[in-house]
Write a sequence for this structure.
């Protein structure tokens, strides 16, 4: 390292920073350039998933390759080592925001500078192509079409894990990309704690008198579903000047900065609850992105603290708020206005029970709160095996189907409703899925902290007033963006994480729902 620093000095890389202010100015220039390129690449991805012609992947791939090459060069530029070393030597002169920027940029630089440039570019192009192929494979129920792409994605992630942090087991290194400090050992304990409470609770629910949700499974016209999405966004208080909604095969959120957030949903004529709750879920992500302070735009601190914290916000709005009886009582008149024939003879209480019905199912995004984490456990177990090399990609459908029998007691009829249902692997997001379970578990503890500070929220929610809820989340979570690590941020807001808040919340909710 001494020799390397001497070499940098001789090449003039260190001497150019004559002051901390000059070095910070150079840091901000790097931030701005990287932000611009990521913005452009994000818009290309969004367009590919929502509006681009099906046959446009190849041309877009060439553009992505050029942009990826530039992003790689900006990230891995040797001058970044000199810049970081200078700032690290002057950390005491930096404010907390700039210190955190240096910390995050150091991690990013150390990782990306280890990745050969050709691999980095090939991977970005692969993901561009894989998205289109996955969508085709899903729609035609053809896993063999997607399998070669998944094999390459898994192979890249196995290599990248070593680049990211060779001191960690490969899957732990990938988990840390989404939730800093997370390990498979921690997740194993977490999921075991959930199973201990939720499996017997599900058995009681299954034995109880079933809830009638038949009125949800009829034709709900698309046009009215579109109107419902607009209404829900207004109830959530999402400013449409800064947040747009589109349609995609799989719902997602893109946050370019706090004044430009895009969400997507998917509509099914006979499954109106899917789009209703995907809009609320993605709306939760959007509220987080739009709540980050302006000063973090176009910097290394933009966006959420981690995917676990991000999913806590989407799941908080989707489930804790969106599936609550006060919220549903408030929006029910609008539902009746839009769907009078479908909801004839139905009241708000019946609707609340129906959208919370617990039953083992096939589709993760349609799963009830009680069984949801079992869907995550399936993906978690498969990812561990794929990265460890103990599961071949060709065997994923069989392994998937077996775990669904074991964990949920359901038979998977086809790969479209099985291992092809999620877009995450086509986007390279291996290690992401556990964030959904953690986010779900973070939410009830946030609710407890929120109500300890300002009392019950439910009288306001019943009036459609989410202002106090959003203000608490903004002050404790959203505004900080990535200034704090996820563990520090959560403990500042809620104290030490305890999954018992989650299991108690589910026990209380489903005991009431099913009169257990």
């Amino acid at each position: 390292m001494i020799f390397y620093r001497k070499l940098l000095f001789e090449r003039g890389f260190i001497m150019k920073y004559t002051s901390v202010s000059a070095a910070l100015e150079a840091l901000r220039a790097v931030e701005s350039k990287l932000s611009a390129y990521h913005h452009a690449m994000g818009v290309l991805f969004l367009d590919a998933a929502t509006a681009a012609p099906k046959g446009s992947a190849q041309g877009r791939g060439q553009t992505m390759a050029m942009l990826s090459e530039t992003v790689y060069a900006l990230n891995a530029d040797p001058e970044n080592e000199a810049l970081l070393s200078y700032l690290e030597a002057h950390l005491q002169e930096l404010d907390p925001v700039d210190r955190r920027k240096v910390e995050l940029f150091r991690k990013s630089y150390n990782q990306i500078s280890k990745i050969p440039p050709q691999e980095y570019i090939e991977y970005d192009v692969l993901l561009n192509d894989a998205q289109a192929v996955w969508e085709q494979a899903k729609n035609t129920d053809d896993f063999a079409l997607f399998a070669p792409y998944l094999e390459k994605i898994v192979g890249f992630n196995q290599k990248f894990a070593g680049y990211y942090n060779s001191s960690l087991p490969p899957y732990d290194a990938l988990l840390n990309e989404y939730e800093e400090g997370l390990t498979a050992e921690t997740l194993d304990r977490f999921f075991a704690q959930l199973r201990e409470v939720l499996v017997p609770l599900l058995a009681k629910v299954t034995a109880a008198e079933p809830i009638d949700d038949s009125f949800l499974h009829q034709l709900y016209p698309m046009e009215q579903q579109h109107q419902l999405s607009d209404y829900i966004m207004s109830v959530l208080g999402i400013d449409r000047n800064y947040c747009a909604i589109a349609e995609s095969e799989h719902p997602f959120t893109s946050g370019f900065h706090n004044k430009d957030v895009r969400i997507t949903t998917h509509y099914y004529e006979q499954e109106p609850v899917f789009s209703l709750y995907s809009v609320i879920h993605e709306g939760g992500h959007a509220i987080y992105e739009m709540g980050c302070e302006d000063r973090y735009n176009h910097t290394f601190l933009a966006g959420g603290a981690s995917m676990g914290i991000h999913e806590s916000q989407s799941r908080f709005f989707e489930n804790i708020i969106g599936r609550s009886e006060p919220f549903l009582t408030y929006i029910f008149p609008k539902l009746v206005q839009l769907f009078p024939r479908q909801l004839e003879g139905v009241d708000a209480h019946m609707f609340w029970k129906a959208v919370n019905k617990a039953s083992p199912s096939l589709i993760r995004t349609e799963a009830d709160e009680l069984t949801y984490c079992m869907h995550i456990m399936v993906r978690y177990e498969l990812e561990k095996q794929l990265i460890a090399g103990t599961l071949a990609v060709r065997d994923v459908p069989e392994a998937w189907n077996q775990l669904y029998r074991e964990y949920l007691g359901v038979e998977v009829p086809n790969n479209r409703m099985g291992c092809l249902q999620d877009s995450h692997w086509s986007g390279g997001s291996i290690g992401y899925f556990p964030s959904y379970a953690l986010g779900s578990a973070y939410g009830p503890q946030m609710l407890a902290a929120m109500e300890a500070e300002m009392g019950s929220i439910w009288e306001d929610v019943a009036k459609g007033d989410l202002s106090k809820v959003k203000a608490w989340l903004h002050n404790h979570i959203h505004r900080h963006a990535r200034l704090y690590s996820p563990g520090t941020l959560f403990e500042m807001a809620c104290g030490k994480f305890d999954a018992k808040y989650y299991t108690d919340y589910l026990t209380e909710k489903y005991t009431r729902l099913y009169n257990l």
Notes: Residues 1-15 have pLDDT under 50 and may be disordered. Residues 193 and 499 are 8 Å apart (CA to CA). DSSP finds 21 helices and three strands in the chain.
